[in-house]
Write a structure and sequence with these properties.
Shape: flat
Number of helices: 5
Number of strands: 12
Structural class: alpha+beta
Largest sheet: 6 strands, antiparallel
């Protein structure tokens, strides 16, 4: 009897699913959430069974292994494409600096960016750069400056190169934990303390040999303590 295994695992903000026949065909894809991935994986397993009797088993670890293989294949394909594009000189290159994504609370490492060349004139080299997911905008560099030194300054990428540069090592930024400011609450003065402060204010009066400055400070201490006592009794 045919045995079909299906499973799902998290892949960033999405869920990856996979269904396969031992030693045979397989299907995989992504869904928005865990339940959606389970539903699509189960449907794929039924499809693979082709109407025949089959034993189905859930194995999420198998989905994790498949996801690793899919990622590796994707990276290998991208590397091969980059090598081809490097050889034919149809691209410019830049490094996109790493940054902390506050939405996902993760550090996004610096990455190599390929900028396809779309046109060359006597003065300019025009290329495409990503603006929004799935969208591109056109940029340009001074051709004479670029060809004389192999790179040019860029306001967006710092520098644009003719050959893929080395991507710098990023030290992940960990934002400080927010802590609301703490304030010390002055203690509520007792009746005896209020009496003492009131007497000190009277003693500091210029009519009793004090000074204006000393009286003002003493009065401020007394008024603050009196107001705290009134607030506490409300």
């Amino acid at each position: 009897m045919t045995t079909i295994v299906w499973g799902r695992c998290r892949d960033g903000e999405r869920w990856f699913w996979n269904a396969h026949i031992f030693g045979g065909d397989s299907e995989h894809g992504w869904a928005k959430d865990r339940n959606g991935a389970a539903s699509r994986a189960n449907a794929a397993a039924v499809k693979l069974a082709g109407g025949a009797y089959a034993t189905m088993r859930v194995d999420d670890e198998a989905a994790e292994i498949k996801l690793t293989a899919v990622r590796a294949a994707k990276q290998a394909k991208a590397k091969a494409e980059d090598q081809q594009h490097t050889a034919d000189g149809s691209n410019l290159w830049a490094v996109e600096a790493g940054y902390y994504d506050y939405g996902t609370r993760q550090w996004v490492h610096s990455r190599l960016v390929r900028l396809p060349i779309v046109k060359k004139t006597a003065k300019r080299i025009y290329f495409l750069r990503s603006s929004e997911p799935g969208e591109f905008e056109q940029g340009c560099v001074d051709r004479q400056a670029f060809e004389s030194q192999g790179w040019v300054w860029s306001s967006r990428y710092s520098k644009i190169y003719g050959q893929p540069p080395q991507v710098p090592y990023d030290k992940p930024f960990i934002p400080p934990t927010y802590a609301p400011p703490s304030y010390r609450t002055a203690p509520v003065p007792s009746a005896a303390e209020l009496k003492r402060l009131k007497q000190a204010m009277a003693d500091a009066h210029p009519d009793r040999g004090g000074t204006d400055e000393a009286f003002i400070r003493a009065r401020e201490r007394y008024v603050n303590a009196r107001d705290r006592a009134k607030t506490a009794t409300r």
